[in-house]
Amino acid sequence: METFRTFIAIKIPEDIQQKLKGIQEKLKQSGAYVSWVNPSSIHLTLKFLGNIEKQQIPGITACVEKSAKSIKPFQLQVGYAGAFPNIRFPRVVWVGVTDDEANSLKSLQTGLCSCLASVGFQDEKERFQPHLTLGRVRSQKNRSNLLRAIEAMVNIWVGQISVDAVYLLQSELRPTGAVYTDIAKVAFPKSGES
After folding, report:
1. Count of beta carbons in the 10 Å neighbourhood of residue 145
2. Is 127 a catalytic residue?
3. Distances (CA, A) of 185 to 13, 18, 133, 165, 194
4. For the chain, what are the domain ranges?
5. 131 is catalytic
6. What's the pLDDT tens digit per position in 161-176?
7. Catalytic option among 32, 68, 131, 188
């Protein structure tokens, strides 16, 4: 049975990707051994699904549609650098994303996870922390330089994203990095639509 490695995400516009590339360039000056994400591949993951079978796609898409139908297009703020599990021992370097006043992103992600749990996908154990992954630390070489570089960007402002759709994406892991292909796009209803 053929399976696809998949996740549900919000795509990031090119102008924000270019600003994130600039941040990566500054962080690279630390000399730390980090596997940097190609800026054109940076996205906001709402739910990683792992390997799925083709016949699961309609059910997953239905969950995306169900969770998106009550959400109007919204804005996200992108800024402040950080790391998982924490800034002192970075494994993943990221830039944070802040929800709008209506908590549209949180509502969307909560509804999505709830629906997906009802069709057999495990619910998240970790609290959802919206972020854009810039890179994964591969070695502790020059860690102190990387820490200083991240700390210098804690208050950095990147920009604003207008969100009007959610995507179900396939991820193919290749030696040159992951390649993402759209499986489904679900747009939010415009004002006046239900």
Report:
1. 14
2. no
3. 15, 23, 22, 7, 18
4. 3-187
5. yes
6. 999 999 999 999 877 7
7. 131
pLDDT tens digit string along 21-52?
999 999 999 999 999 999 999 999 999 999 99
Burial class (CB in 10 A: 0-12, 13-18, 19+), 5: middle
- pTM score of the predicted model: 0.91
The Cα-based distances of 25 to 19, 38, 141 in angstroms read: 10, 12, 18
Fold that domain 3-187 belongs to in CATH: Cyclic Phosphodiesterase; Chain: A, (3.90.1140)
- Residue 89 forms beta bridges with which residues? 86
Could you report the per-residue pLDDT of 96-116, keeping only the tens digit for each? 999 998 999 999 999 999 999
> Which listed residue (43, 76, 81, 134) is catalytic?
43
- Long-range (24+ apart) CB contacts under 8 A made by 105-109 are 105/74, 105/76, 105/130, 105/163, 107/70, 107/71, 108/46, 108/67, 108/68, 108/71, 108/166, 109/46, 109/47
